[in-house]
Amino acid sequence: MPALVPTILASLFAASLLAGGDLWAQDAIGNGGSVPQTTEDNSTSAADAEVRALVLQLSSPDFAARNAARAGLLKVDESALTVLTEAAKTADGETQNQLKVIVEKLQGRFFDAPLKTFLANPTRENAAALPGWTRINELVRSEESALFVFREMLEAEPSLFTTVRFNRSGLPPVLLERSSVTERLMKLDSEQFPVASVLALMVIGTEPGIRLTGATQSNINAALSHPQFQRLVKDGIHASAIAAITENWLLREHSVLDAELLFAMKLDSPAGIELSRRVLKARRTGPVECWALLTLGKLNDMESLALIEASLNSKGRFWPMRGQSVQNAMPGSTFAADYHVQASDVALAVALHLRGESPDTAGLKVARSEETLFQPHSLGFNSEEERTKAIEAYRSKYPALDAQ
User: What's the longest Cα–Cα distance across the chain?
Assistant: First the structure.
């Protein structure tokens, strides 16, 4: 497979998104579980046995027999690749070398050739022969955009797609390595932002059954706070396609992170509602609870009011961090020494906002924010007495709802 240069291709992709062009898509691969043996299973076993016999024949002392085995192995179908790959790991000497060459040639036949065809003529029919297309096509509503994005992803991250196709169990370390490289590229130059690589990682990282390390998720999530990526999601030519892929990434099964909620708030992403509800239903505490509350307020999710009001009992510290004084956190501020912000304060401000009231009516001198609804440091009370009085007044006015 020819070596491709992700940096240059991703840069061209980012430029085309802003100036014109189109986007991509991906496919779900592999099924778990077991099924009763069928005639097809028996024929597969027989085919595997034939492949193993040809592998053994590669070690024959007879030159003609070895050549015949090599020719036979080069004609097998894609299902034989697993057997050949495993055999290459345990074979010795020249046999191992020959098996590696055969596997490379077969992968070229099953992936490189269809890839070359698609890159030369990016049609739906040619895309269907490659791993990833079905998934991307599901996520991106515009076929034109889906084909464009798919093409850029394949060019930027061919190793990810070959691993998906031929060595699915080997995806986690490849995802970690490629996400590390991509995260480093994000730091170099905003004009060289590797958007194609980021989206490929997001799509393949949400493949069924794939378990990502914390480092891999952190590397990919670095894109969420990058101004160039945010601009592409909001104003790029293919903003809707990038947003769809990003939302699919955000909604994967995982423990919600602060950065994801901040991204959802800033970009008004509908995924923020689901993420925030997950946090509150799980009774998670700390900053993530407060960011979830603010996200629901920013997105005006009145349906989550009961969940928000349940946090009126939460004492989780938000600002300043525990162990840090107000003056250290904000030198020159006029806040009292005991002033701090906790989850119940954020819940109160958000609940009042959703009910059409200003938090000022509860004694909260809040500062507004276009990105996070309210500035976090402005949501607290100077004393526990003030806090208790404000929450009791709210509960007296608005009887508690049942959190679902």
Answer: 93
Q: Are 348 and 386 in contact (CB under 8 A)?
A: no
Average pLDDT over the chain, rounded to whole? Answer: 87
For helices 258-267 and 287-298, the axis angle rounded to 10 degrees is 20
The answer, yes or no, to whether residue 18 has pLDDT greater than 60, is no
Q: pLDDT tens, 39-95? A: 445 555 777 888 899 988 888 899 999 999 999 999 988 888 888 888 888 888 888
DSSP alpha helix (H) spans, 213-335: 214-221, 227-235, 239-250, 258-267, 271-281, 287-298, 305-310, 326-329
Q: Tokens in use for 211?
A: 């378990």
CA end-to-end span of the chain, whole Å? 53
Distance of CA 40 to the CA centre of its chain: 36
Q: Which residue do the tokens 């003030």 mark? A: 386
Tokens describing residue 366: 């809040």
CB atoms within 10 A of CB 49: 11
Evaluate if residue 16 carries a pLDDT over 50. Answer: no
Record the pTM.
0.80
Element (H, E) at 161: helix 158-166
Residue 178 CB burial class (10 angstroms; 0-12, 13-18, ≥19): buried
Q: Which long-range contacts (CB under 8 A, 24 or more apart) does 50-59 make?
A: 51/76, 51/80, 51/83, 51/84, 52/83, 52/87, 55/83, 55/84, 55/87, 55/91, 55/95, 55/99, 58/91, 58/95, 58/98, 58/99, 59/95
pLDDT in tens, 262-286: 999 999 999 999 999 999 999 999 9
Tens digit of pLDDT for each residue in 145-191? Answer: 999 999 999 999 999 999 998 888 889 999 999 999 999 999 987 67
Q: If we measure between CA atoms, which residue out of 267, 159, 250 comes closest to residue 203?
A: 250
Average pLDDT value for residue range 358-380: 95
Task: Of 223, 156, 211, 152, give the one whose Cα is nearest residue 184.
Answer: 223
Question: Rounded CA gap, 241 and 218, in Å?
Answer: 22
Mean pLDDT, rounded, for 27-33: 34
